[in-house]
Design goal:
Layout lengths: L5 H15 L2 H4 L1 E8 L3 H14 L3 E8 L1 H9 L6 E5 L1 H7 L5 E6 L1 E6 L19 E2 L6 H13 L22 H9 L5 E5 H6 L4 E4 L9 E7 L6 H12 L1 H9 L3 E2 L3
Parallel strand pairs: 1-2, 1-3, 6-7
Antiparallel strand pairs: 3-9, 4-9, 4-10, 5-7, 5-8
Helix pairs in contact: 4-5
Amino acid sequence: MNHVTPATCVAFAVVLLAVTGCGGGGRQTLTVFADTSLTATFGSLGKTFEAAHPGVAVRLDFGGSGALARRIVQGAPADLFAAAGAATMRASGAPSPRVFARDRLQIAVPKGNPAHVANLKDLAAPGVRVALCAEPAPCGAGARAALSAAGVTVTPAGPDQNGPDQNGPDQNAAGALAKVRLGKADAALVYRTDVRAAAGAVEGVDFPEAAKAVEDYLVATVPGTTRIALTREFVDLVLSDEGRRVLAAAGFTPVTG
């Protein structure tokens, strides 16, 4: 009968740990915080990244850039941050961000443009109902800058045309676009990507003052992450030809410089 000594048991345990105790196959999770407007593009790029990196799962957490920046400062676990606006990126404390895309405003109108809106001055015409985003939202700040550059003053249609408050901005682009789709507004000032995401429910009208309200999109590694190599590879994907194609298809202007 074979005798098993305590030393043999210890040696066997060490071998067993070496075989089975390596983190369940070494699967890693790359957590990416990204602005809501990047939902479709980063969703697609996340799948591309996972296909090229077996054993890596990309966890995407979308939200308003300002709210995501505050969560990062408060210690939320994130490896990479993609934000709308340089000020928001600075607020997150993430160093050395890179601009990877830009977005600019368009006038969203119902299909067929029944109010014949062709420029910003048309938004101030009598009877034209305009939906604007609230100023904390990027489309709200952008609209203010563009209207100021054009010297146009617009009184926005309120959150509910049938309610008591008929003058006031919507919270975000989704609310402004909903008014246009539902016939409660003749036009809305939102970004090109918002118009593209509406999938043909509205049309976009370009105007020259949009150059005064270009929104930069930046990406940076979050301080303290242990997955620096993976974050750099994800940024490389965003800046690659594939990344540019996906961003352009969503209405962004890709930037690789």
